[in-house]
Write a sequence for this structure.
């Protein structure tokens, strides 16, 4: 009891001055408990009530100060009265209204709202929210005329089982809404850029499942856009090699948090696409890695262009380096096959008859099929190559099985699974047909414009190689052959004859030489003219080709003088060859009539001796025998030594 009185005394001392202002008698009772002991409990209750009232007043003042400092306002909507009440300065601080404005009816409040928000707020007043707390945002006209955004937190007050009041804490969030609108505009602009980007833009979670991807992907993937979402690259149908590379690059990004850049090759059916892929880490507000942004740019054309340029340079180097034509043509086929996935290229060249093509290159084609197209007739319905050569334009057969151009060869193509063939004619710089360039596929398909352009480009390179080879052969002929007879000229004959002498000495085999001169050739030129004389020269060259073996060497040394080297031939056999040639000339000249006048030939023969090291020594001895035949009356054969055959014309 003593402790109770002591605590009461201390409480009375604290609240006593306040009680004296309000209840003087109660205050005296608190100071003199022994006199007013019966009123002590009442005094205590009054003090406690006063303390609570003071604390509530202090809290309300603090709340008003907090609301004012935070630019918050407190509104109360009296729903039965349809009236809005505001605490001091709320409407002035938030909406710029006069300071004495403490409230308004709901209709006026609704008139201040933006037309787009008015109906929704009116419905909310008619059917107030039932939840303990609800959020709401609306635009309201400021007293200055501008629109302000209000963020409102509504708390219903219940009475008699229904909501009678709405206590609303509101604040102006115009700046935030403008920022959000700006962010939204930027996001929309970004989304527009992303959706219309030529690049594939995708976002993956840390399990590499696709969360977002733009519509550019449909140009490179058979899957619809929505089917990419939630799938990993493997589940999207990427190859094992491509999936593994992508996963490895993503793992490295997760470890280092640094952007990655690499190239990847993906297939869309028969189409091959090369992408430059850039991976970027994306972090949340706490700085943790959340997603991976992938920007994939197709660089197929660039890489194929670079590869094509490098391969073209390699082909041109082969052409400039005088590599064999077959090797160059095969390299061109490989170059094209590297640019066209699944393609098998072949090159056909025009035969001398101008009526057929012959196989020249294309090792990717089946060996048996290559054998079957060693010769292809040119015609209006002779497959892709024969038809392209006939019409001198590109022929595209998308499906061999359905094409009338291939009906004659369907069994042949079916055996090797060939279903499509495109063929382009190859022309020289003078537009002369040189051959055709073809591409086969094992499935029906048609070329794109890029592929057709690539074929034309390759056909031009093939034409360069063929013309270069033709020019080289022509230069070689000019340097080594006699222009009138197409036999070896003197220089080439001597060079090749020395090789035969060296071979004969190495293997100790016999070798004989014939020196030949047309009799009275000057008289033929004088009587019939040089044109007839040239015809006689060509006629004798043809006789040499017919009389001599393929392994024998013949040449025109100058004017009407000819020579021949007969490897592995003794002098007796050489004399028989010489006599046969002499007789053929005499008989043929009589049979030719007026085209070629009668003429004869004198021949000298000699055999290589063991002590002779070059062709000049043998030719000198054979030449002596030739002049011996001239002295003995011409149209005869003379030999070095006892073996000799002679014939008088």
């Amino acid at each position: 009891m003593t402790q109770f009185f002591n605590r009461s005394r201390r409480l009375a001392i604290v609240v006593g001055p306040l009680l004296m202002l309000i209840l003087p008698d109660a205050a005296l009772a608190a100071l003199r408990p022994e006199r007013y002991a019966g009123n002590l409990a009442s005094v205590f209750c009054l003090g406690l009530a006063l303390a609570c009232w003071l604390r509530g007043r202090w809290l309300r003042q603090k709340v008003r100060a907090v609301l004012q400092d935070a630019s918050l306002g407190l509104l109360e909507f009296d729903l039965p009265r349809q009236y809005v009440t505001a605490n001091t300065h709320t409407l002035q601080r938030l909406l710029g209204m006069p300071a004495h404005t403490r409230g308004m009816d709901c209709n006026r409040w609704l008139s201040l709202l933006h037309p787009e928000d008015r109906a929704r707020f009116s419905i909310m007043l008619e059917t107030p929210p039932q939840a303990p707390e609800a959020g709401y945002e609306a635009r309201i006209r400021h007293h200055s005329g501008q629109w302000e955004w209000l963020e409102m937190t509504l708390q219903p007050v219940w009475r008699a089982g229904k909501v009678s009041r709405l206590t609303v804490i509101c604040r102006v969030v115009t700046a935030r809404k403008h920022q959000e609108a700006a962010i939204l505009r930027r996001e929309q602009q970004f989304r527009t850029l992303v959706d219309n980007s030529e690049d594939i833009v995708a976002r993956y979670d840390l399990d590499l499942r696709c969360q977002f991807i733009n519509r550019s992907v449909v140009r490179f993937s058979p899957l619809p856009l929505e089917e990419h979402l939630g799938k990993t690259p493997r589940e999207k149908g990427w190859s094992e090699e491509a999936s593994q590379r992508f996963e490895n690059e993503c793992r490295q990004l997760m470890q280092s948090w640094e952007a990655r850049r690499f190239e990847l090759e993906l297939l869309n059916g028969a189409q091959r696409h090369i992408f430059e892929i850039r991976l970027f880490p994306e972090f949340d507000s706490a700085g943790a890695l959340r997603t991976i942004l992938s920007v994939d740019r197709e660089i197929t054309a660039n890489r194929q262009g670079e590869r094509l340029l490098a391969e073209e340079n390699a082909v041109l180097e082969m052409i400039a380096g005088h590599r064999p034509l077959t090797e160059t043509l095969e390299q061109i086929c490989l170059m094209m096959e590297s640019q066209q996935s699944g393609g098998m290229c072949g090159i056909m060249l025009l035969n001398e008859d101008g009526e057929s093509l012959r196989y020249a290159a294309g090792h990717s084609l089946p060996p048996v099929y290559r054998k079957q197209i060693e010769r292809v007739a040119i015609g209006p319905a002779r497959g892709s190559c024969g038809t392209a050569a006939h019409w001198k334009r590109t022929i595209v057969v998308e499906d061999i099985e359905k094409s009338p151009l291939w009906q004659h060869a369907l069994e042949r193509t079916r055996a090797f699974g060939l279903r499509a063939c495109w063929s382009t004619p190859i022309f020289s710089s003078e537009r002369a047909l040189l051959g055709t360039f073809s591409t086969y596929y094992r499935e029906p398909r048609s070329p794109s414009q890029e592929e057709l352009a690539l074929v034309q480009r390759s056909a031009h390179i093939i034409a360069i190689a063929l013309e270069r080879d033709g020019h080289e052969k022509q230069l070689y002929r000019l340097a080594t052959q006699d222009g009138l007879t197409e036999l070896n000229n003197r220089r080439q004959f001597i060079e090749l004859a020395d090789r035969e002498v060296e071979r004969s000495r190495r293997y100790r085999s016999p070798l004989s030489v014939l020196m030949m001169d047309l009799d009275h050739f000057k008289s033929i030129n004088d009587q019939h003219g040089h044109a007839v004389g040239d015809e006689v020269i060509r006629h004798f060259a043809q006789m040499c080709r017919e009389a001599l073996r393929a392994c024998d060497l013949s040449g025109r040394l100058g004017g009407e003088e000819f020579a021949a080297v007969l490897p592995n031939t003794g002098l007796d056999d050489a004399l028989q060859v010489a006599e046969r040639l002499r007789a053929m000339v005499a008989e043929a000249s009589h049979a030719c009539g007026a085209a070629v006048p009668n003429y004869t030939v004198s021949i000298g023969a000699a055999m290589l001796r063991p002590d002779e090291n070059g062709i000049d020594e043998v030719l000198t001895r054979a030449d002596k025998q030739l002049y011996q035949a001239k002295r003995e009356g011409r149209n005869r054969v003379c030999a070095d030594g006892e073996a000799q055959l002679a014939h008088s014309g």
Observations:
- Residues 1-9, 11-31, 66-70, 642-649 have pLDDT under 50 and may be disordered.
- The CA atoms of residues 283 and 289 lie 4 Å apart.
- The chain is about 45% helix and 25% strand.
- The two ends are 177 Å apart (CA to CA).
